[in-house]
Amino acid sequence: MSGKTGASEPEPSTNATSKPKRSKTGRSKQAPPKRGTTAGIAARRASAQADGTEAYQERRAEITRAAAQVFHRKGYRGTTIGAVAEVLGTDRASLYYYISGKDELFDDVVCEVTEVNVATALAIRDGDDPAPVKLRSMIEALMASYAGTYPMLYVYMRENLAEVQGPREGWSRYMRSMNKQYEEAVIDVVQQGFDDGTLRRTGSARIVAFGIIGMVGWTNRWFSPERSAESHEELARTFADTVLDGLTLEQSCRGL
């Protein structure tokens, strides 16, 4: 469906060499999208999305959840609309009334969630709490997001945005800018702590921030909200305590 302009193809003629009829202005006359054509399905989907009925949105949410399962198992490249339809127990064609393809499913969901995460991080950074409290809040918010959208963000983390090309290239650039904003928010908080003495300066703010983001992000390899023994709240608390309190006991440091 990519590359379609929204206009339907001219109806086939019995004369294979005939051209579309033209109006007095010289422009081709095109019939309105017919039911069952790609353009017709796209038009009805756009209309349904604009109306935003509860039933339509619920079904779309079902499709998104099913897609998340397939994305998690097969990754972006291995996922097909047919595989999503199989999870839902329906045919592939019926899904196009709700979504244009897997790009839309994946990109829209991930983009929306990432925007929320960035906005949350910026709000925490700009708040009045001391840096240690801000870092704890950031860790808790990120783990809650990973758990609440599981496994979409984890799938996204496994994609190499630098290799995304074609129609998704604009999305890739935007997502990289979102990632950078998030990273800079964490770096800023660490630097705030260094500057006011609430955090011990163990290295550059950038290295410390990337270490925190990486530690939380590595949960994509082993954490599942439904199967893991620990909740996302417990993981966030443990990570925050490890970062902010350290692992080495004060007495044991004396002999080092």
Structure description:
The chain has 256 residues and is mainly α. The protein folds into 2 domains: 38-95, Homeodomain-like (Arc Repressor Mutant, subunit A, Orthogonal Bundle); 102-247, Tetracycline Repressor, domain 2, CATH 1.10.357. It has helices at 38-51, 54-78, 81-88, 92-95, 102-125, 131-148, 152-157, 169-196, 205-217, 232-245, 250-253. Helix 2 (54-78) packs across helix 5 (102-125) and helix 5 (102-125) runs antiparallel to helix 6. The N and C termini lie far apart (64 Å).
Using brief descriptors, characterize the structure shown.
256 residues; Arc Repressor Mutant, subunit A; mainly alpha; Tetracycline Repressor, domain 2
Write the layout of secondary structure elements.
Layout lengths: L37 H14 L2 H25 L2 H8 L3 H4 L6 H24 L5 H18 L3 H6 L11 H28 L8 H13 L14 H14 L4 H4 L3
What is the share of helical residues? 55-70%
CATH superfamily of the largest domain: Tetracycline Repressor, domain 2
Number of domains: 2
What Rg do the Cα atoms give? Answer: 25 Å
User: Which strand-content bin applies to the residues?
Assistant: under 5%
Average predicted confidence as pLDDT: 81
Determine the CATH topology of the largest domain.
Answer: Tetracycline Repressor, domain 2
Structural class: mainly alpha
CATH class of the largest domain: Mainly Alpha
- The number of helical runs is 11
User: How many strands?
Assistant: 0
Write the H/E string, N to C.
HHHHHHHHHHH
- CA distance, first residue to last residue: 64 Å
Overall, the morphology is elongated
Largest sheet: none
> In terms of per-residue confidence, which ranges show pLDDT below 50 for 5 or more consecutive residues?
1-36
CATH architecture descriptor of the largest domain: Orthogonal Bundle
